[in-house]
DNA sequence: TTGTAGGCGTTATCAC
DNA sequence: GTGATAACGCCTACAA
């Protein structure tokens, strides 16, 4: 019952030519007569021939397949990056394998090994929260030819290209905007400080305050995660203080949403009493009746650029050595109702 | 500068045994002595041996890779299905390749061909809006061994398993809920009727009205797409009529969101004046200050079940013939503020 | 312009 | 329990 695929041998037999001729005709080799080429093409189609990429890959060492590892695929940010990646690479004949690390370094490592086994031509990773030991990544760089590219959540490692957004700048302009709207006591709800992106957002916040001669107060920096609940809880806590915040810059849209919910719960007004701005430009931020200001990370573009870095590296690689690139994209501030007081 | 991977030949040379022995040892073959097995294993590790899946796949005909084609990956529904798929298949050693059809039948067909070339072990598809000609799919079924599985957006084709939710039931309970809340003049904003899912939602709406002895009025069924704008525009149109709707059942959450925005714009009250319920349970529906009722499609579960159908088919396939399955999942109604009048 | 033959790394079928 | 060898489907020197 098993249906066998037709191979170039089948075609060569039928046409009484050698497999080499068939292969060459199929690959549009220059030194082959037009008629044989046409004939081979025709019979290939007729016999429903499909090239076996496996065999080709085994021979050439190139699978025309890349892998991407993200914490979870069903988030707006990561699925958008992957969309961009697929759209950049697909026209060049590359397939994209997706893996999820579940934000766990061990699983991430396992997925990485699997992708290596699969002989992918490149691996794109946005590292998990608890990834710290990069030794095995360095080992891969040292012992294999498989390039690794980090996007968004990165670590700096020699030989690895990275594509990120300027989180520092995004946080800076967000904070600056709040300052310009007249907010004085701006709190920051930061994300996991094990990740560079959240470190940078914190620093952007701090530097904006400094540049505008506002005091940087340690107690005003609350280390939250990125959930709605944490936003609610953090807001509950800080509103009990004598010196309440009059604005919140959250490193996460979800936390910002929690903040908004709690403000409403406390019968305070946004943006009059308290201004709010988030980060990521999640779809819901603009859908809300009271829309939430946010910083867009241009994820689709990030995916496309990531793919492009890989494609370029192949071109350049004629020299055998490819130089790592460190690309930083510009974030876009979206000012909405939650922070527009003037 | 190119680093070569170590092969079983390298190991066999170093150990002065045959490649067959090495292969067997590595695969834990029963008839091989414990010492050689241990020895091979040790040197394999020492030499940093990595099995070449390509060669294995070429030999066995199994790539341990599946493909999935969706319109766009960066939507909550599709990325969630893919999440489920990956989580079901990954533990069994399968990789997942993702492709986007951009809701276009031609691109979809091309992606399908590419996946076939890649020799994937199974292809999961949620078809595009304008897919109608299924001849090439039937041809693939007839001429290849690659199973195709439809999820959510399907067509009925012999030999193809499908995993869907009971859209009819989802629409029925949504409409029923509106009726029970006392709404009398319930409109339906339907989706693209080329897709079965939207046909079923329409029919569920109709049958609920019938069962409750409410008139089914043709003019109350508006054929919209699935965007916010279309929701706004459709709402503008119908509110100019003499017999205005007092509730909207929308086949899409985005259209429902547009409806809500326009109702607010018209200074009407939700749910007092007009009740609203959507479909898909998009994250934003529960985040809104005025949360929107919706029907959940359990996308992650749908992905897991889809993967499981494939895995089961492999097991069963010892007989050589695999029977198609038609699985229908139960949707869940989430009643929120936009429709709770009593 | 076309044909022959070897090899990519594994596994499986024979032998011994 | 182990070894030699063919085969998976393709590409590509090298010959002719």
UniProtKB/TrEMBL annotation, chains A, B:
PROSITE patterns in the record: HTH_LACI_2
Query: Which GO molecular function annotation, any one, does this entry have?
Result: DNA-binding transcription factor activity
**Which SMART domains does the record cross-reference, listed alphabetically?**
HTH_LACI (SM00354)
Its ancestry begins with: Bacteria, Pseudomonadati, Bacteroidota, Flavobacteriia, Flavobacteriales
Which CDD domains does UniProt cross-reference here? HTH_LacI, PBP1_LacI_sugar_binding-like
Species per Swiss-Prot/TrEMBL record? Epilithonimonas hominis
Give start and end of each HTH lacI-type domain: 6-60
> What keywords does the record list, in alphabetical order?
DNA-binding, Transcription, Transcription regulation
Q: What protein name is recorded for this chain?
A: Transcriptional regulator, LacI family
């Amino acid at each position: 019952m098993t249906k066998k695929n037709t191979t170039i041998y089948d075609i060569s037999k039928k046409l009484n030519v050698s497999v080499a001729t068939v292969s060459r005709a199929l690959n549009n080799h220059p030194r082959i007569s037009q008629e044989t080429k046409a004939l081979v093409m025709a019979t290939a189609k007729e016999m429903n021939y499909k090239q076996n990429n496996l065999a080709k890959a085994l021979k050439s060492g190139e699978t025309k397949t890349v892998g991407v590892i993200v914490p979870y695929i069903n988030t707006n940010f990561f699925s958008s990056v992957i969309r961009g990646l697929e759209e950049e690479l697909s026209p060049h004949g590359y397939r994209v394998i997706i893996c999820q690390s579940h934000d766990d370094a061990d699983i991430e490592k396992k997925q990485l090994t699997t992708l290596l086994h699969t002989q992918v031509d490149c691996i794109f990773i946005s590292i998990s929260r608890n990834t710290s030991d990069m030794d095995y990544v360095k080992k891969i760089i040292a012992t294999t030819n498989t390039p690794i590219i980090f996007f968004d959540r990165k670590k700096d490692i020699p030989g690895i290209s990275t594509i990120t957004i300027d989180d520092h700048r995004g946080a800076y302009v967000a904070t600056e905007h709040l300052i310009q709207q007249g907010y004085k006591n701006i709190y920051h709800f930061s994300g996991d400080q094990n990740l560079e992106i959240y470190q940078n957002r914190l620093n952007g916040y701090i530097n904006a305050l400094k540049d505008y001669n506002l005091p940087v107060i340690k107690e005003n920096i609350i280390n939250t995660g990125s959930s709605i609940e944490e936003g609610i809880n953090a807001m509950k806590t800080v509103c009990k203080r004598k010196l309440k915040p009059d604005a919140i810059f959250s490193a996460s849209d979800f936390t910002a949403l929690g903040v908004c919910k709690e403000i409403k719960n406390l019968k305070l007004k946004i943006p009059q009493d308290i201004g709010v701005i988030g980060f990521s430009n999640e779809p819901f931020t603009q859908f809300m009746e009271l829309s939430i200001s946010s910083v867009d990370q241009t994820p689709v573009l990030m995916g496309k650029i990531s793919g492009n870095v890989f494609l370029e590296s192949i071109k350049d690689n004629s020299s055998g050595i490819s130089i790592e690139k460190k690309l930083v994209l510009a974030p876009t501030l979206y000012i909405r109702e939650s922070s527009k007081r003037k």
